[in-house]
Design brief:
The chain is mainly alpha-helical. It folds into 2 domains: 82 residues, no CATH class; 62 residues, no CATH class. The protein is built from 7 helices and 2 strands. Strands 1-2 form a two-stranded antiparallel sheet. The longest helix is centred in the middle third of the chain and has 32 residues. The protein starts with a strand and ends with a helix.
Amino acid sequence: ARVVGEGRTHLGWYLLQVFLAFAFAEVFTHMVPAFAMARQGVFARLSPKIGLWAGLLTLNMMWLKFLIIWRVARAWALADGIDPPENMTRGLNNHYSVKSFWQCWHASFNKWCVKYIYIPAGGKKNAIVATGLTFGFTAMWHELRIDLFAWGALNAAFIS
């Protein structure tokens, strides 16, 4: 993180973006309660085509939720004179590969994983093992569950 120079204009603009994201999430969550629908099993009763769209909608709402959480934390740091890295550097639907997605989703955690897990595990020379270990750690970081390890293994397979 670096210290913010003039920064107040930057902070004001950043807070406006956070507010607009929050307002959009608030309105959209009331119009389409994707998380509640997923929890109640509504998506399982949809046709496959509509179910895929509902899944994409839920993923976009998750992206927006994390965008707000991480940007509120970053705005707080900016207000304190520290400029930490942005965690959501691209939109969810603005990726053409799984690798690109993970480089932009929680970007600071990605940088940490690359520096402390992926590169020491062999990096590009041993990409399959290094990627597997990185996603294994990430799955464990979230919670020690078999479905998360399967999620990590699938991500590692798509990236390697």
